[in-house]
Amino acid sequence: MRVKDRLVQCNVSQPDVTRAPHQRLIPNALDSSTDVSAFSEDTFDVKDWINKTFKSVEAQENKDAFVSSLVMKLQLYVQQVNGALEETSQSVLSSLPRVLRDTQLLQQEALALREKMVAVKQEIEKVEKDTASSMATLEKIDKIKTDLQTAKQGLHEADNWIFESGDVKAIANKLISMQKSLAMLINVIDYEDKKLQLEGLKNRLEAMASPKLVQAFTAANLEESKIYVDIFNKMERLPQLLKYYHNCLKVSLGQEWRRTIELAQDENVSYWLHAYYDKLLSNWNDQVKWSQQVFSNDSVDVIIEIYADLLRSLDPGIPECIEALLKQHSIAIQLSLLLELKQITRHFALNLQGAIETSSHGKLQNLKLLSLAQAIYAPYVPYVTKYNIYETAQLEHQLQSMGSPQDDLSDTINILSLSISRVMEYANEANKRCKVFTDGCGYPGLLKSLTSYFNKYLDKYQTAIRQLERKKVKHEDWNLFQMCLTLMQTIGDLLGQIQQFEKSLIIDITETNNKEETILNPIIKSIQKLCSDLHRATYEVIFAPIFTQLLSVQKAPAWSTETNKMTHLSADLPDYSFAPQEYITQVGQYLMTLPQHLEPFLLRENPSLTQALKAADPQYAQSSTESGFTGILLEIIAKETCQMFLDQTLGICQLSSAACKQLATDIDYLGNVLEELGLSLSENLQHMSLLLRLSPEDYQNSSSGCNARVVAAVRQIRNITSSG
């Protein structure tokens, strides 16, 4: 009988191959009360197992029967285990050939795989050798790809958290770093997209920084402004920053215009323009000095653009203010008002041009200067186009003021004879107005106005002739004959003067509209500029000793706080008790020696020097002889000496009564020296000398008529209250 059949008969189940080995070897023939699991333990002890088994109730009741039963069960268990082992052995023996075949197949496949790997390795080595340059390119592309991914990630992260800190400088540094990284990826496909994304971040930074930037510009904060200029420059956004500066300065100066009008509402546009132009000139120097420290050397061009834009956008506009003024007066005097305003504007334009030339050191852009000039003179363009109307009205008004023909013919002829000079004077004034107000472009209108003007004036002669004709008689009348000859002589005089006026008018028109230029005109202008530069340098050499002495005015012993020697002198001493101080006597002695040094060059025949001086300064062209050039040069030096002396004295903090008399003595000494040279002291210094000698009680009343700026400065220096 087979082992399997015997197990069935013994009610022993087949082993479960899924169980553990020791579990598969436990027969089911053993009942549940028999613990055979201990057989598989490493610490199995036979004695302990027997003792434990015999502790059961069944064993205690019938030990012999229990032992026999247990032995039988163990024998069955042994048989079952033997059968399981035999079955397992048979299974292993039957599967060994298949395992061997599988092993051989695996060995063959491993050898084939090894051969293929060797072939692949050789192929890779060949590819590496043949495509070394391509691999380098691929490595470079891969690096670019990595950089792009890094930049992309950086931009993405920046878009989310870079602006959270609110630190403009830190944010700007981060964006500048991104900008440099992005510049390396210019050939990448999505470069433009990344560039737009970075520009968006720059826009956000600009929006964040703009309030503080505007505040820095408005307050003229030098350090803060420099920081923002550096940031915007590195971000390649300097033009946007200049727009902020443009708007800040434009708004500030626009508010100054409105403030000027509000503080002087009782005045007219003439006063407003004069005051505002002075503020613009003062502001120009301040802005140029400040902006040159903040921006590049192009700061002058920037301020020129701002001034041009400002003058076009003032609120209320200058044209509206001029129109309001003209409506308050008759058309007959409107041209005079316009001429006055134009002269104020012309004076401002010339002063501004001088300031621009000084600031730009001759490096000017004509287009920007042209734009500024157009903005300055734009308010007058509509009136220049209607110049003929205004001129005609003024000439007719002047003509009416001369009176009308009388009933008596002799009185009429006498009035006409006397009126010729006035008529021609009015015509010449009209010519001057045309040149000044229209710069010569209004001559066609002037000719129309003069034609109308002279025709109306000739009507008076027609009236006189008709009066004469009514007095004609058939008998002789020598008196009437004499009146005819007199009237003829008067008309002949008028004809001659009109012909002479016509010649001068033709010359003016020709000079204005047909200026001849030589083919070497640029060279000639360059030489003229060279003469001008040399003249300025020569002047500085001549003026240097005076400049040095006048620098010590504020430290003069008479009022110096360190070495005040006037404290023991009484203010009641007469004027002759005071002698001029050393600094002014040094200036005076130097001025007195100038003529003898200049005469050897200017008195003798020297046509070349004459031509150079005339090219350098138009003032020399006013002298008809070479001996007059000495006087012109001395006049220039004297004018600058007076101005510097005034500027230095206005810088003195405080003067005692005795020191006031001392300063007045110094001023008078300079006046005496200039008088010896045939020159005169400046009006402001004359006013200062007078003001220094006034008693505090008389200061308020006696200072009327003096320059307001000098009056206020001397009052402060002397510590005199406004009420006197």
TrEMBL record:
Location of the protein in the cell: Golgi apparatus membrane
Main localisation: Golgi
Record membrane topology: Peripheral membrane protein
Keyword presence, Coiled coil: yes
Coiled coil ranges: 103-130
GO CC terms: Golgi membrane; Golgi transport complex
Keywords: Coiled coil, Golgi apparatus, Membrane, Protein transport, Transport
GO biological process: Golgi organization; intracellular protein transport; retrograde vesicle-mediated transport, Golgi to endoplasmic reticulum
Family under the similarity heading: Belongs to the COG7 family.
Protein name: Conserved oligomeric Golgi complex subunit 7
Upper taxonomic lineage: Eukaryota, Metazoa, Ecdysozoa, Arthropoda, Hexapoda
